[in-house]
Amino acid sequence: MRLDGEVLLVTGGARGIGAAVAQVAAREGAAVAVLDVLPAAYGLAIEADITSADAVGAAVARVERELGPVTVLVNNAGRNAYFDPAEMSEADWDALFAVDLKAAWLMTRAVLPGMKAGGRGSIVNVASLHARLTTAGMFPYAAAKSGLVGLTRSLALDLGPYGIRVNAVSPGWTATRLVEDYLDGHPDPGARERVEGLHPMGRIGTPHQVAEVVCFLASDAAAFVTGAEWAVDGGLGARFA
């Protein structure tokens, strides 16, 4: 019961890593709220556009009314990107960064009054291995996730005096539905074996394995951890390709 008494709000919690965070947090005793554009099956489910300041404010106000002030925020919602840098439109750029970076700030800004009033809080931003290492053909995902890690460090410094910790988790290959569909539908029948073989542990991760780290960082067990980026990638980031 590491999160007993906490009110945890996770974005993008209808599926994948976000849904796993909601499940693990509930198991650990937290009252859970989920924000997503899709219906969620766990906790207080709110459909909201997290790129809209008004929608974010209304959603957080509802969580506070029904569950109490948010003490743990998990900024999990995000989008992949597959653009040519010469052909990507300004609208595409703005849409990607609105979800992958701006939304984390909007969510943080909305919960800060309650956290400051309570003298404590924990924010965990779900970044990506792409914040440090990336591949061709995924422009500008790495830039957005690198920005999220930078945001994490800045917030940790500015909010530390208020008793609020801010950390990032950077997953690698994780068996979400999108990843499983990609590997199952890959034209190369050896794609899954090749991807798994890149990992020192010989496999990719699961959403719940990432969620366990998120919930650890959110809890008092990590009370002296802030401004950190934790890789949850099965050692892939340690490999010299």
From TrEMBL:
<comment type="similarity">
    <text>Belongs to the short-chain dehydrogenases/reductases (SDR) family.</text>
</comment>
<dbReference type="InterPro" id="IPR020904">
    <property type="entry name" value="Sc_DH/Rdtase_CS"/>
</dbReference>
<protein>
    <submittedName>
        <fullName>SDR family oxidoreductase</fullName>
    </submittedName>
</protein>
<dbReference type="InterPro" id="IPR002347">
    <property type="entry name" value="SDR_fam"/>
</dbReference>
<keyword id="KW-0560">Oxidoreductase</keyword>
<dbReference type="Pfam" id="PF13561">
    <property type="entry name" value="adh_short_C2"/>
</dbReference>
<dbReference type="InterPro" id="IPR036291">
    <property type="entry name" value="NAD(P)-bd_dom_sf"/>
</dbReference>
